[in-house]
Give the backbone structure.
Amino acid sequence: MKWFKRLLIAFFSLSLLGVAAITAAYFYVLPDLPDVNSLKTVQLQTPLRIYSKDGKLISQFGEKRRIPVEYDDVPVQLINAVLDTEDARFFEHRGIDPIGIIRAATILITTGKKSQGASTITQQVARGFFLSNEKTYIRKIKEIFLALKIEKALTKKEILALYLNRSFLGNRAYGVGAAAQVYYGKELHQLTLPEMAMIAGLPQAPSAANPIRNPERAVARRNWVLSRMLEKRNITQAEYEEAINSPSTAKYHGAEIDLYAPYISEMARDYMIQKYGEEAAYTNGYNVYTTISSDLQLMAQESLRDNVFAYDQRHGYRGPAAELWTDTPLAKDAIIDTLKRTPSMQGIIPAAVMNVSEQQAQVLTSEGNTITLEWKGLKWARKFISDKRQGLPPKQAAEILTAGQQVWIRNNGKHWQLSQIPVVSSATVSLDPHDGAIRTLVGGFSFSQSQFNRVTQAKRQLGSNIKPFIYAAALEKDYTLATLINNAPINKPDIRQGTAWRPKNSPDIYGGPTRLRVGLAQSINVMAVRAMRHAGLDNTINELVKFGFDPNDLPRNESLALGSPSVTPLQVATAFNVFANGGYLVEPYFIDHITDGYDNMIEQTIPAIACSKPQDTSAPITDLDDPFAAMAEELSQPVTKQANEINTNNEFDPMTLSAEDNVCSNHNARFAKQVISEQTSFLITEALKSVIWGGGDWSKGTGWNGTAWRAAKLIKRHDIAGKTGTTNESRDTWFTGYNPTLTATFWVGFDDHGRQLGRSSWMANGEPDQISGGEAGAKTAGPGWNDFMNKALAGTPEHPVIPPKGIVSARIDLATGKLTRKTDHTTEFEYFVEGTEPKEYVTDTQQNGEIFIDNVAEDLFQ
């Protein structure tokens, strides 16, 4: 019995020593143990995501790819695979696994090697969030105590969810949600059993068992996971046999981009970094929902691309990209390897010319496909000599191509054709007239070619796009659409120019006294100058500033009337929006709202809207206490509402508005500043419709075209208005136009400001056409706008003409602008602001052409 007593005493002594050691160890590490309750609100590092307004993913930024998932969203078999592999008794132990500890201790005693086999999933969570991976005894002790604390603070499901979301699984994928996307391009519920087993085997060896880098080791690891699932009876023998015999299908998948719109995503990324800092922007899981319409954006990108291709082809073929061989052809594999080193761009892909026959050629692509280029895809390729000159149309394919050349090809939607990377630049942006939301934005032909955002950064001369604003200033003074302005050479120059500046029409033709409507529709230069003289230079500049133009960009001389200011396409679209919405300056904005990683709203843009405050004397009217909000109200700037901003008093604060409340019928909505009268806006819009539709009666011989007649020919609706724009020597070309629901501008030019767009003598398909000749707004930028608006407005109802209050119509004589009682082809109805309509009827003498024009304004600048 003595030996039993001694054994019992030794056992209790050792137990007490163990308890004492554990207690001592606990109090020793206690000061260093973090608060595990922080895991309840832990912020997993997730990337920044940019979306369109309709929820299409545009871009993703951040080093770590993570798609957080809830426990209930994880397939049962994936959970089984993880538990069977990492911690089979997870739902039974209290944070540490005694059986695992004994096993690890046995291994240490018998082999002298440390093992991680005793680490439960809870311990791994403790280590992953709070500790390092170094294998020391003190770290292990901390890990054990942290695991025990975590088990008390969190449920088993919460712990497992943290593990499944945080584990590094290779290829920048953190968590099973990201791994499913990275390796298989799937969501979790779409994974097969062998794919789930593959992912479950990654946490302990994300590099060694990586299915992309080490497929053999990855399959071996996967099969071991499957064997554990079979052992634990979570799969049948048949499922096991089928799964281990399945091939590995893993390959790298990038983020599932639904809408490629890099210029707008870069704007959003820059905004987030400026506002929240780079670290928070890239890791806090923010979701930025832009104002971009995915459908419209695709249309804009396609229209810009096709328009650039059309210009580029009109000016000829600049030759092959490279010579791969001359006499001895390269081996097919060598050709393909060479082509693969050249990335495709905007649908243009590299190819090698293999054979050239009479009117066709065979080319080889980097995918190893042989494509035949028929003559309809080759005949455009006149030789490029200069921007103003091209060679004769080719008759044989051999005049264009030679075997051994590396060229570019593209499918134009109808057939394959020879192509080339355009050197001309272009940009487009469209806005919602009601609140300034940016619906589309394309900052250039190719983001990979140039990240320079020409919509917001490129200031280019405006050309004749400025004329509607010049005439608006004249209308705001006392002109009407029927006012006669002398379309004659200006022989008395503006002395402010410093030189004898004498503007000329383009073409250099003059028709004498002409109505203002016709002068704007046909973009007559000397009439714009005379209209500005009537309004006054200073007054015109003040009017332009009201439209949102920077006064520093506006020269104080008469060249202003012909578009000498340099402005961005976004400024142009913003200014034209004033005409589209009835006279209100609504500032453009591109972020609709921002949410955090848990879809909580943290920012909401509340824009100023294009309508007047309802007339309701019973509504409370209070001053704005917030100076920023007050300033924004004055300038019609959109306000970004922070989620944590609270109105502490009972007075109206625009920051308390919701997007749904910001409507015209709400007294507390944010209203944009009205910068011109609704009547002036209406009259300019009517004149800009004539730019597209012209006027007169063609059947009676009095019809005339506006400069943008091609738009009418394609779009065939009467609620569109617009203006062409061309600068000196065709360095910049514009077309800006709108209907009541959408405003858009297209710009085409070279990034080199000194390079002219030139002229062409043939269309891109090799057939002569009216597009021939010098490049100009209607020919160069106009087709892009026409194509975009034709697609964007398709299926939408045409808006009827509804004159605002204070507008009247009167029948006038077309030659004099005076009232007439006749109803023949020499007359038509014209709109006027009430009280400005003509008071005098035309006389027979005046109808015969004897018209007096008061040119006193000509002397103002002597």
In short: The mean pLDDT is 85.
